[in-house]
Amino acid sequence: MNKTNIMVCVTQQKTCERLILNGYKLAEATKGKLYVIHVVNEKDKFLNNVDDGEALEYLFRVSKKAGADLTVLRSKDVIQAIINFAKDNNITHMILGTTPKENNSKESNFALKLQESLPNVEFIII
């Protein structure tokens, strides 16, 4: 059986803990490796306020507890950065969160672009 490499895409929100925990459960069940990644657009302010830093620190702790490192990248092209990370780490499964209904078309477009570029990756939307 091929090695399972699970990638969890998070934002700097504490609610992303549920994504990491789902990734952890899958990694445990498959004896796979867990990666947690957060990509920041170079145009966006990073850690714009105290809550952002606190949330990111929290996600670092949750990731570590789940046996994963949290990788934070800055890129002009967030989608391409995720695709490159997935390819570089032979990702087999990618866990993404859903967004509020009003952002649904943006989210669908985001997930669709990832799926088109990574046809061999199993996507899990939570």
From TrEMBL:
Q: Which PANTHER family match?
A: SENSOR PROTEIN KDPD (PTHR45569)
Q: What is this protein called?
A: Universal stress protein family protein
Q: What Pfam families does the database record attribute to this sequence?
A: Usp
**Which GO molecular function annotations are given, in alphabetical order?**
phosphorelay sensor kinase activity
Q: Could you state one GO cellular component term attached to this entry?
A: plasma membrane
Q: Where is the UspA domain?
A: 5-101
Q: Which InterPro entries match?
A: Histidine_kinase_KdpD, Rossmann-like_a/b/a_fold, UspA
